Amino acid sequence: MRLSRYFLPVLKETPAEAQIVSHRLMLRAGMIKQSAAGIYSWLPLGFKVLRKIENIVHEEQMRAGHMPMLMPTIQSADLWRESGRYDAYGDEMLRIKDRGGRDMLFTPTAEELVTDIFRSHVNSYKDMPLTLYQIQWKFRDEVRPRFGVMRGREFYMKDGYNFDLTKEDALHAYNRHLVSYLRTYERMGLQAIPMRADSGPIGGDDTHEFLVLADTGESEVFYDSAVTDLSFGDRDIDYSDVAQCAGVMEEFTTKYARTDETHDEALFHAIPEERRRTARGIEVGQIFYFGTKYSEAMGATVQGPDGKPTPVHMGSHGIGVSRLLGAIIEASHDDNGIIWPEGVTPFHAGIVNLKQGDAEADAACEAIESAMEALGLEPLYDDRNERAGGKFATMDLIGLPWRITVGPRGLKNGVVELTSRRTGESEELPPEAAVAKLAEIYKGHMVKGL
Ligand SMILES: Nc1ncnc2c1ncn2[C@@H]1O[C@H](COP(=O)(O)OP(=O)(O)OP(=O)(O)O)[C@@H](O)[C@H]1O
Ligand SMILES: [Mg+2]
User: Fold this and answer.
1) Cα–ligand 2 centroid distance for 449 (angstroms)
2) Where does it primarily localize (predicted)?
């Protein structure tokens, strides 16, 4: 991609309405534009990152054996009356009437619809376990939409639903989700800590939220500092292995980590004082086991091994896909702008031409561009007739983790400069070596983009 042809409406001024750094940077970097309170257009750069995040979520869900599908955003109120949530949901639900006067709504979540699909098509325990999921726009008419995409009214969410014959099977599904979520967030360069939480309007007993520690987070959290030493890493996992998944669950949830809703002072004070932490966190996901709450209300039963109709055990599991952009930026930025982790960066490296129009410099940039593309890497080539300072500032703002700087002086010695956005460190090397190094860096971080 050439910057001269890209749509990147960078803002010079810091937008006054944005209170937190991720919101400011997303507006300044031309990633989003507000269209109404809590509702945003995703401009090309923002959309690219959104798709990367979405694709990581898909890859990890499919790896866990969960099945992607898509349900409508506009749903009939009738199903929601069956579960009792049409009235219970309150003002957060956006209610709509169609031309025939029928009550419709914009989906805030999809337990009812997916349960209806299940009960229409699955009759036997032999067709389970089953986990269906989607990544789809949701709408919740939040009282106070704020912080940009972090608390929108329209937002993009992965929601998954497991259907199991027994509570034991459903708890395995719960553990599978926990493991897949740990992998998902780590691939995005994030540490998201599972914390015991409150179930809210979804209902149910067992639930964990995943929180990214950040001063701007809306949740107050209490934890044993030992939880921040845990990481899933690149260990192998067999998602059908019940004991292995339960082991990961235990490893990541035994140490004290709770949100304020379930915080217990006595348990907290049992932790050695030097390990007690009180902080703030951003909720980027939540998993629930709620048993037969919806299956009983909506008659989702299957024939069990004994031939008797049994209500299925369910859980639902969400990831805040659009909120994650904000959370990642909160966790990874500096005074000059965003610093994307390799797994989600919109472009793999920026190419900065210090002397646009110089035949040699132009040719070298184009050669690097083609060499990267040949390896499946996406460069963003700043080919504008701008001063070097302006080009560097744009690259720093939009946060590509690597930059290749090309100028006549270096080319005389056969080298270009490869700079890390995170450390600011630069290295001079021949263009082919710089491209080879990028290919090495991105091994294991290649995610399908756009
Ligand atoms: N208004 C929102 N804007 C952006 N993302 C959201 C919003 N509400 C929820 N999410 C994301 O969707 C995920 C799953 O939704 P869930 O039903 O658990 O939300 P929630 O617990 O009501 O969120 P919150 O407590 O932040 O309002 C959340 O973990 C969060 O990451
Ligand atoms: Mg939640």
Assistant:
1) 27
2) cytoplasm
What percent of the chain shows pLDDT beyond 70? 98
Tokens in use for 440?
């090495």
- Copy the structure tokens of residue 138: 């949701």
Pair type for strands 349-353 and 313-320: unpaired
Q: How far is the CA of 283 from the centre of ligand 1 (A)?
A: 7
Give the mutation target among 177, 323, 328 for probing the ligand 1 site: most ligand atoms within 8 A of CB: 323
Whether this prediction's pTM lies above 0.85 is answered by yes
The pLDDT value given to residue 417: 98
Contact status, residue 132 vs residue 116, Cβ threshold 8 Å: no
* Total domains present in the chain: 2
Which atom number of ligand 1 is nearest to the Cα of residue 159? Answer: 14
Q: How far is the CA of 332 from the centre of ligand 1 (A)?
A: 21
pLDDT digits (tens, 9 = 90+) for 203-230: 556 899 999 999 999 999 999 999 999 9
Residues 333 and 351 in one domain: no
Domain boundary pick from 337, 369, 386: 337
Nearest residue by C-alpha to atom 11 in ligand 1: 320
In a shared domain, residues 321 and 353: no
Residues 241 and 265 in one domain: yes
Q: How far is the CA of 434 from the centre of ligand 2 (A)?
A: 43
Q: Are residues 89 and 50 in the same domain?
A: yes
Please report, for the domain that includes residue 359, its CATH number: 3.40.50.800
Range of the domain at 234: 3-337
Ligand 1: residue whose CA is nearest its atom 29: 285
Last residue of a domain, one of 281, 311, 337: 337
Q: Coil, strand, or helix at residue 111?
A: helix
